[in-house]
Amino acid sequence: MIGGDGSANGLHWDLTRLYAGPDDPRLEEDLRAARERALRFASRYRGRVAAGELDAPALRDALVELEALQEISARPGFYASLLAAADTQSATALDLEERTTEAQAEIRTVLVFFDLELTTLADERFAAYVAHPALAPYAHHLGTLRRYKPHLLSEAEERALTRKDVSGRAAFMQLYDELTGSLRFPVVIDGETRELSDGEVMALLHAPDAGLRQSAFEAYLERYAAERLPLTAIFNTLLLDHRIECDLRAYADPADPTHLANDVDADVVTVMMDAVGRHYEVIREFLRLKARLLGVPKLGIADVYAPPIDAPETRIAYPEARAIVLDAFAAFTPRFAELAREFLDGGWIDAEVRPGKRHGAFCAALAPHQHPYVLMSYTGTARDVATLAHEIGHGIHDMLAARQTLLNYEPPLVLAETASVFAEMLVTTHLVARTSDRAVRRRLLVETLDEIYGTLFRQHALTRFELAAHAARRKRRLASDDICAVWEQAQRELFGDTVELMPAYRFGWAYIPHFIHSRFYCYAYAFGELLTLALFDRYRQEPATFVPAYLELLASGGSTDPASLLARFGFDIRSPAFWDRGCATVARMVEELRAAM
Q1: How would DSSP label each residue in 413-466?
Q2: Helix 522-541 / helix 576-596 crossing angle, nearest 10 deg
Q3: Position 312 confidence tier, pLDDT thresholds 50, 70, 90
Q4: How do residues 518-547 score in pLDDT, each as one tens digit?
Q5: For residue 269, which of 103, 191, 279, 365 sits 20 to 30 Å off, Cα-Cα?
C-alpha cells in the first residue's frame, strides 16, 4: 500500500513469512528445537574433530548440519530485530529481541567447541581437509576460520565471553537504539513548531531554504547533546568492552578483528586509507565550488548536502522513485530489474516515515533461501531515491549469492557496499541521461559528488575518529567533551577551511549508529566507493563482458577473498595506484562541475 499523496505511507514490510506475529508459537518451538539440535550436535561431534576421527565427507556432513542449526537458531532473533527496528518503542518487540538474544547466546556457547577444535588441528591435518574435494565448497570458510587461531581462547573462556555479551555489549547496543529511537526534534516550519523524526530532519538537510537547514540540524544536534550523559556512557562502555576483548585475544590493533572479518589484510586497508587522506583536497575543492553555487563565501555544516540555488526543487513521489529504480536497473541488465521488482512488490520494504522507527536505512538478510528485508524512511527527496536503490542493491547482492551455502553466503563488509553503491550510480546515470536541462544536470552532478563525499571522504574521516577514540579510551575514560574534541579534530582535518562547523556539531558522533553496532564498518564504505568507481568505469568501457563478470562477482558472496575476486578484473587492491585512480575519477568529476558553472 502506498499513500495517495505519493508518499510511502502504509508501505511497511510483511514479516509473516518468518512468523505470524510476536506471539507465534513457532518462535518458541524454533528456539527449543535449535537448542535441542545444538546439544545433539555437541554430543555427536565434541572431541572427534580435535582427535581427527572425522574423514572429509563426515566433516562436510557436520558443516551442513551446523548451517541448518545456525539458521533455525538465528531466525527468531532475526525476526525480533526487524520488529524492534520498525518500532524501537514497542515493549513487545524489545522483550522478544532480548529473549532471543539470550537464547542465541546460550546456543552459541554449546557450539563454540566446534570452531575451536577445527582451529587447533595440526597444520597437516587441516591442510588435508582443505584440499579434499568433498570439502571444496567450504575450503574458503575453513581457511578464513584458521586465521583466527592466534586470537581464540579456551572453550570455557569463549563460552563465558559469549554469555557476558548478552548483558554487556548487546545490552548497550539495545539501549542506544531505544534511546535514539525515542528522540523527537522540534523544528519550526512555516511558523509552526513540528516534532520531527530522524528521517524527516535528515531530509531537511537537502532543502533549498538555508535557514530551515540550519535550524533543523541545530535542533537535531542539540537534542543529541541533551542526551550526552547516557550516550557518553554507552560509547565509553563499548570502547572499553572492545579494548578488554582485544587484550584478551591478543589483537595488536582495535581494527584487526574487523580486518579479519572482512577477509582483507590490514596493509590493504592502510594503503586505501592513505590514498583517500592524500586526496582530501579534491573534496575540499568541490565544497568550495558548492559554496559558489549557493552564493555564500563558505559553507556551513548544514549546507554540505544543500542543492544548488539555480536548480529546481523536485519532490519525487514513491511510485516515480520505484519506476526510476526499475528503469535504471533494467538498462544495466534485466536480472537486476527482476530482482528489484521482487522487493518492490513482495512486501520486503518498510519505507513509511513514522515515530519510533530506527533511524537510518539497512538491508538485512538471514540465509540464502530467505529473501532479505529493507528498512528506510522515504520522504520524497532525490537522496531517498538513491537510498532506495542503494538498499535494494544490497538485497540484489544477497539474492544473487543465494547459490552459496550459509557459511559462504555473506560477503565481507569491504565487498558488501559493491552492489549498493553501484546501484546508486546506475540511478544517477539514468537520471542524467533523461534530462537536457543544464541546471538539472548540474544538480545531478552535485548530488553525485554529495554522495561520494558522504560515502568516501566522510566515512574516511569517521574511521579516523573511531581509531582515535579507541586510542584515547585506552588511556582513560572519556568525558563527552573529550569525545567531542576527537570528533572535531577529525572533521577539521577533512574540511580544512571550507566548512564552518556550528557549535552543536561537536556532538555529531552521537548519531552515528555504526560506532555502536559495527566497529570500523565505516572504512568499508570508503573501500566500496573507490572499488565501485573502478568497476563502473570498467562497465562503461566494456559493457558486454562486464555484466556477466559482475553478476558472478556478486554471486560469489563470501566464498572467496576480496583480493582474489577483484584480481579477475585486473584490480590489484594492494597497489596505491589502484586507489589513486579511483580518487582521480572523483577529481575529474569536480572539474566537470567547474566547467558546468
Answers
A1: HHHHTHHHHHHHHHHHHHHHHT---HHHHHHHHHHHHHHHIIIIIHHHHHHHHH
A2: 70
A3: low
A4: 999 999 999 999 999 999 999 999 999 999
A5: 365
- Please tell me the distance from the alpha carbon of residue 347 to that of residue 13, in angstroms, as a whole number: 5
Q: How far apart are CA 313 and CA 48, in angstroms?
A: 66
Show Cβ contacts of residue 73 under 8 Å, excluding neighbours closer than 6 positions. 30, 31, 34, 35, 38, 103, 104, 107
User: How far is residue 99's CA from residue 97's CA, in Å, rounded to a whole number?
Assistant: 6
Report CA dihedral (173, 366, 361, 496) to the nearest 10 degrees.
70
- Identity of the residue numbered 498: T
Global model pTM greater than 0.90: no
Question: By three-state DSSP, how is residue 395 classified?
Answer: helix
Partners of 362 in the β-ladder? 375
Match 544477497 to its residue by C-alpha cell.
398
State residue 4 phi and psi, 5-degree precision.
-65, -20
C-alpha cell at 340: 528489484
Residue with grid cell 544517477, as numbered in its chain? 428
* Torsion sign across C-alpha atoms 259, 263, 269, 271: positive
436-466 confidence digits (pLDDT tens): 778 878 888 898 899 999 999 999 999 999 9
Please tell me the predicted confidence (pLDDT) of residue 405. Answer: 95
Mean pLDDT (the chain) is: 93
